[in-house]
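Thread: Newbie trying to understand structure tokens

Hi all, I'm a second-year student working on a class project, and my supervisor (Dr. K.) asked me to get a predicted structure for one chain before our next meeting. I've only ever worked with sequences, so writing a 3D structure as a token string is new to me. If someone could post the tokens and maybe explain what I'm looking at, I'd be very grateful. Here's the chain:
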Amino acid sequence: MSAPTSPILQAQELGPLWPTLDPFLFCAHHDDAYPAGSAAFGPAVPLDGRQIGSDFSRKDGWSMYHGDTVPGFPGHPHRGFETVTLVRKGLIDHSDSLGAAARFGGGDVQWVTAGRGIQHSEMFPLLDADAPNPLELFQIWLNLPARHKMVAPHFTMFWNERIPRLALPGVTVTVVAGALPGAGAPLPPPPESWAAQPGADVAIWTLRLAPGAQWTLPAAQGQGTQRMLYFFAGDGLRIGPQLVDRHAALHLRADQGWLLANTGSAVAECLLLQGQPIGEPVAQYGPFVMNTREEIMQALHDYQRTQFGGWPWPTPDPVHGSAPRRFARYPGALVDNLPP
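---
Reply by user tm_fold:
Sure, no problem. This is what the structure looks like when written as tokens:
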């Protein structure tokens, strides 16, 4: 009798940056226990012992990152890929060189196609002066194929209330990208995204299983699709015949479905990233992702010369006021307001 097929091709313990597979480039999980906020929307505690401007220390359970007063990432450039930001807790203030702005959080997703070049800032305002301001998010970098690396930049919001979900007893699957039977129609990704291309089979899902719950993860639609499942919360998960008892990045066989079962006493949560590989050379220098070293040099030259359209904001780290109301202001003054 042959041994049962293993669903897990490779497993790696989770660290600050999570391993990814083509077409994905990068995945970071930020989970910061920020304290009460100051009048300037930064931490209302001393910042002694931190390397301000580059603080990834997680001292006291949080970091300032590149922020001086407000935590976050002041204006910086990107070219040649997309950022997909899923916010689980807290708020993010977005501003960019297109003139777009947004405040989003609590399940919202921001999707930015950098294309030929964009500057943007991502600041984490601490609006509550009387209580902690926890923040949790995933930032995912999705590559663009060579033919789309120089498309016009694009910015869009997927509001939490509009994101499709599959809800079963003890199980919730949130579908940011990719079709999942029973979840409703997926929201359209940006038009030049690899996720929008026929046959790309891109999926970005979050999974939540109550203790004792189980659900069958369906097989990928495409032959050759790469699939990574990140088990990041909970104390036990069974995938087919294999038990996973520690948080890990799990490269799964995608050509068949697998029963997922929460074997622990706490809620189990996972992030799924999958897609057909783009299969092109990757040349990366910081926030620029192209196909050749020469294209990277051109990106550096273009940014020095044009600043990718310049920065229309008075400071490199804009914060959009004290009201918690979520909104997006797109280029052309179109405004999309959401309830707090």
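A couple of things are worth pointing out once you decode it. The first strand starts at residue 8 and ends at 13. Helices lie at 293-306. Feel free to ask follow-ups in this thread.
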